[in-house]
Each structure stands twice: as C-alpha cells, then as structure tokens.
Design the sequence.
C-alpha cells in the first residue's frame, strides 16, 4: 500500500515537473513568466484601485498581491484541472497510469506557478515591515484550499469528459467568482445585507485568512474556517467518489 | 493462476454511438430533443471473442483495419471494460499501443524516457536508473539530449520500446506500431520479445505482417468485424486469412476484357484495378552472381491513392518455392501520392540464385496491405544461366584450409 502511495506521489511530482519544464523550455524568461503575468495583473489592479478609484486600503499592493496569488492558484488550477483528463488523453490510454492523479497534476502545476511568485510576496511583506512566524500558518491554509480544489477538479474533469460544455461553464463560473472573492476589495466595503453571499464562497474566508497572517488584517472567525475546512473535505470525498464512478467510461468517450 | 496468463471469456465490446450531428443545441432543437439525446444502436467493436493464452505463449492477432485488434488489446490492458463477458489478466501488463504519444515534444529523449517509465509504473528513482539501458536499446544515445520534436516516428517508437524493454512484466501487448521501425530495429525487438518469452512472458501481438505472425507466433486469432473468424496454430490461421484475402481480391477484380496479353484478369491477374501495373520490365542476370533490375510502371485510375506498396516475389519455377519477397514499405520507401503515372524500380545487387528458371510476382497494394490494387501472379519469367547445381543459392564462397 505504501509502495502504491509512493508511486502515486512519484507520478504527480514527476509529471508536474515535466509539464512545467516543457512549458518554459525555449522561452527566454522561462519560469519567470508566471511571475510576470501575476505582476502585470497586480500592476493593473493597483493602478485602477488606488489612482483611478481610490479604495483607501492601506498597503494596497501587498493587500492585492496576497489575494491575487491565492485566487490565481484557485482559478488557474481549477481551469486546468477541468481539462486534466481531456488534455491528457495519451496518459489515460496508458495501462498502468493512475487517472485519479490527473487533476492533482494540473493543480500541482498551478501551485508551482504560485511558489515561483512567493519570494516576491515575501519581499513585499518584509518591506512593509510585517513578516512574522505566523506566515507559516499559510501552509495548512493552502492545504485546505488544495482539498477544495482537488475535489472540484475531480468533479469537473470527470464531468467534462461526458459533457464538453463543462469546460466553458467552469470558465464563466471562475470569471464571476473572481468578483465574488475579495481579491481587490475588502468584504467590509460590501453592503452588510450582501456579505453572506460573499461568504458562501469558501475562497472569501481563505483569502481573508491569508491576509490576516501576512498583513495583520482582521482574521475570519474560527467557525468560518471550520466550515470551510469541512466543506473542502466533503468536496474532496464527493469528488473522488464521482470520479471513481465515471472513470471506467473514459476510454470509450475520449 | 500462473502469472502472465490471459483469458477472454465471450467478450463483447460496444461503443456508444450518438446521433449524427452530436449533442449540439442545433441538433437538439432541430429534432425533437428526446430523439437527439438518445443513444442509437451501439456499434459492436468486438462480439463474442474468447481467447485463452497460457504463460509464455505468443499469440498474433490479425485482421483488416477496424476488425477490433486494437480494441481487444486495449481491453486486455485494462483500458475500458467489456460490455459483456470477462477478461482475466494475471500479473503485470506492459503495452506498446501507440506511437509514443506520451512523449513531450519539447523535452529531451532522456527526460521523456524517465516519464515513460514513471507512466508505466516505475518509481522516479528506478525510472532514472533504467534510462541508460533504454537509450542503449533504442540506439539513441547520440540524440538523448535533443528535444523529441526533432525525432522521426521511428526514433520515437525506438525510445518507447527501449523503455518497455527495461521493465519487469508478465504480459506484453504489442500493437501494429512496430511496423514503423526499420527492419534492423524490428528484428531487435522481436529478438527481445523471444528472450522475454523464454522467461515466461506472455505476448499478444497485433500485426498486418502476416509472414511475421506466422513465423514468430505460436497461435493466431483472426478477427473479422469484431468476431473471431478463426483461431489456432499461427501458420494455419495466416494461410486461411491469405486465402480469404485472395478470394476477396478475385471477387473485386473486374471481368476480363480480352486484351492484356499474357495477363488474364481473374486468372493470373487479380485486384480492384483502382491502380494498375501497366508494364514490368525485368533485366535478368547474365550469371548467378550478377544483379537484377525490375522496373514497374504504375498508373492510377482514381484520385486519392497515397503511398501504395509495390511488392515483388521470386519463386523457383520447378516447385514454386519462394526464394525471396521484398516490398517498398519493408525498406521504408514511400511512393508518395499517386497522382499520375509513376515508375518504381527495384535493384538487386547480387541475385545469387542457382541457375534455372524463376517466376516473378509483382503486386501493388494499398498502403496498409488491406486492398490489392493489382497483382500479377507468376507473370514474369527469368532464366539464370549456368551449369545446374544442387540447392537454391550460389553465394560467393571462399574455402580455406587453415593450418592446424
């Protein structure tokens, strides 16, 4: 059993690293591209919401950057995970390959992009004078997010094999969800009556939790965190069950 | 149960088929929705196929394109499930089913070899340690660090097979892809497969190369439109298949028109005549050690014929023994699109056949061997001059007496 788990880990680590290597091979900036993309988006958001429309949030660049990294992993990871089976048809057709790992690979590739941007975040946070040991809490927070993403990934990628529209639906969903996640604003700015809607989105709580440890923003309530953790765990379990149920038909539908 | 044994018990495999036009909004709106969304009659890719393969046996699977060969191999590999019936495979399975589609064109041969091994079930460390052996088997060490996009199809296949050759497994599934490799590599693969069989590995081998199936397999299964048409000793099944192919070609041969000289349709000339061999000139050897040149003029009678195969076989006239066969495809020669008259020439540097009379077959086939366009049976005769000798060959020989 441990041998088998070891092999699953090897598959995820190796294929993810290969895909990252292949994506950046023969480009001049190489692995700096994901960072460049994140910084460009950061630049636009900071310009618009501090110069054009001033939201009056202190330390706005680091405020946005934390949100952008956490959301960026979620959005690019879910988008890639939804196509994980469709895009890796060749792996599905390998007898010994564990298909269950496909969305994990997509999410790991997106995580590597996030990790490449992490040093920049740490520099920004250090400059604004607030790097504390508490930042280590980010690791379990990312773990909860990983559970949520893997669960959604299993659901979406298996469904997308049978109904290709799922990819487009997820694309539109992520676009809407970006505005329902406090990436460039504070939940406190939303009308009180509408806040509960934002908290239906587990990413809201997760983004706020990261801001609490990196930027001394008010932390979300313990109850919210427990609920998000439970919801993520439930999503992962349901996702795996659905994936397992749909998996036998993949070869016929691809 | 012995590891490596494979059993198929009355296997059916149906593929779901959606109405033409698919499940688009347009199709759903155009027809009544329930009709457009309902699956139509399934297509059976395999119906009622049973097969029992013992440890260390090699079974060839033959049949025309679309007969279900690949479907059968996939099911044995555990890809998808049979609609009905059961499949038991004991032990670890390795497969060469595709032409290295798992290879990433941007990454190097070395990196891809590691990935291929990991994908086939090896740990990362183990995968890295078997790469040198895989590259050596594939004879790709000199390009190991070049991106795979610069590799030819044959090189990709060699890399894929090279990795498989390093793995431990009990059953090996080979699809037709081996045909992409050159002859030297194919024979190296076959030698490796035989070595593995000696140690108890079971092999399922789908192929269009009938003579190879007859030569290397113990048994063969002939699939025709998903059903097992014949199963048994490889040579017998191959002979039955060839007999049927000949009958089919004869059936599709147009009736004789009266001209054509020595060639008479449905007699010594068969084929669909979609493309024809219009002229064959044979420059016969002046002595046993001389060469021979055969020039074949081809003529298409419809558009869209690409890379047809030209084959030549030489038989001894007295008893019909086949001296040798050769085909453009075996030598990796492609004729290209046959858009107008085309001449193909076969040069044989030394014929070395014993003096006597020989008959030559010249054939023109579709690029997958599945259709005979034109086949001239024993239509050309050559005479190798010289004093009669015993045996078939007069190769150049040197006898020496070595001092004790």
Sequence:
């Amino acid at each position: 059993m441990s041998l088998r788990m070891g092999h699953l880990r090897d598959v995820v680590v190796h294929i993810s690293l290969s895909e990252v290597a292949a994506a950046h091979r023969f480009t001049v900036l190489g692995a700096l591209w994901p960072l460049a993309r994140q910084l460009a988006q950061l630049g636009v958001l900071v310009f618009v919401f501090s110069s054009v429309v001033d939201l009056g949030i202190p330390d706005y660049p680091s405020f946005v950057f934390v949100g952008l990294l956490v959301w960026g992993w979620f959005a690019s990871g879910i988008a890639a995970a939804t196509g994980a089976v469709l895009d890796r048809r060749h792996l599905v057709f390998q007898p010994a390959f564990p298909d269950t790992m496909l969305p994990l690979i997509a999410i790991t590739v997106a995580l590597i992009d996030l990790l490449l941007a992490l040093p920049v975040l740490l520099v920004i946070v250090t400059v604004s004078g607030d790097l504390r040991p508490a930042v280590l809490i980010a690791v379990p927070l990312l773990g909860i997010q990983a559970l949520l993403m893997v669960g959604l990934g299993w659901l979406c990628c298996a469904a997308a094999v049978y109904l290709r529209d799922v990819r487009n639906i997820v694309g539109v969903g992520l676009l809407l969800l970006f505005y329902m996640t406090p990436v460039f604003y504070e939940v406190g700015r939303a009308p009180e009556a509408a806040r509960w809607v934002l908290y239906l989105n587990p990413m809201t709580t997760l983004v706020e939790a990261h801001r609490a440890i990196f930027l001394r923003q008010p932390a979300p309530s313990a109850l919210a965190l427990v609920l998000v953790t439970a919801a993520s765990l439930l999503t992962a379990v349901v996702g795996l069950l659905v994936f397992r149920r749909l998996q036998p038909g993949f070869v016929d539908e691809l | 149960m012995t590891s490596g044994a494979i059993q198929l018990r009355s296997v059916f495999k149906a593929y779901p088929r959606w109405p033409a036009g698919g499940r688009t909004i347009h199709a759903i709106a155009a027809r009544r929705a329930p009709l457009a969304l309902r699956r139509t009659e399934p297509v059976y890719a395999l119906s009622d196929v049973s097969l029992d393969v013992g440890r260390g046996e090699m079974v060839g699977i033959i049949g025309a394109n679309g007969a279900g060969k690949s479907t059968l191999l996939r099911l044995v590999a555990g890809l998808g499930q049979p609609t009905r019936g059961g499949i038991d495979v004991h032990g670890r399975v390795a497969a060469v089913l595709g032409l290295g589609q798992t290879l990433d064109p941007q990454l190097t041969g070395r990196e891809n070899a590691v990935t291929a091994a990991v994908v086939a079930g090896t740990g990362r460390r183990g995968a890295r340690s078997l790469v040198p052996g895989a590259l050596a088997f594939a004879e790709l060490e000199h390009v190991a660090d070049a991106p795979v996009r610069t590799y030819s199809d044959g090189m990709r296949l060699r890399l894929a097979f090279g990795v498989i050759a390093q793995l431990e497994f009990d059953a090996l599934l080979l699809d037709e892809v081996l045909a992409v490799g050159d002859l030297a590599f194919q024979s190296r693969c076959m030698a490796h497969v035989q070595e593995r069989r000696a140690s108890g590995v079971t092999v399922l081998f789908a192929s269009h190369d009938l003579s190879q199936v007859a030569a290397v397999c113990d048994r063969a299964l002939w699939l025709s439109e998903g059903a097992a048409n014949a199963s048994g000793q490889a040579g017998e099944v191959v002979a039955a298949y060839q007999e049927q192919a000949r009958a089919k070609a004869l059936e599709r041969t147009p009736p004789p028109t009266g001209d054509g000289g020595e060639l008479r349709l449905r007699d010594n000339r068969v084929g669909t005549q979609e493309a024809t061999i219009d002229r064959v000139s044979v420059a016969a050897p002046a002595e046993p050690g001389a060469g021979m040149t055969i020039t074949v003029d081809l003529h298409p009678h419809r558009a869209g014929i690409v890379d047809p195969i030209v084959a030549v076989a030489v038989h001894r006239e007295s008893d019909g023994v086949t001296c040798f066969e050769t085909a453009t495809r075996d030598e990796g020669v492609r004729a290209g699109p046959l858009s107008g008259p085309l001449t193909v020439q076969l040069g044989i540097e030394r014929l070395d056949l014993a003096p006597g009379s020989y008959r030559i077959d010249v054939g023109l086939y579709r690029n997958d061997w599945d259709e005979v366009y034109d086949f001239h049976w024993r239509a050309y005769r050559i005479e190798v001059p010289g004093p009669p000798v015993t045996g078939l060959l007069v190769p150049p020989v040197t006898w020496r007496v070595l001092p004790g």
Summary: Residues 269-384 of chain B form a domain with the Coagulation Factor XIII; Chain A, domain 1 fold (CATH 2.70.50.60). The mean pLDDT of chain B is 84.
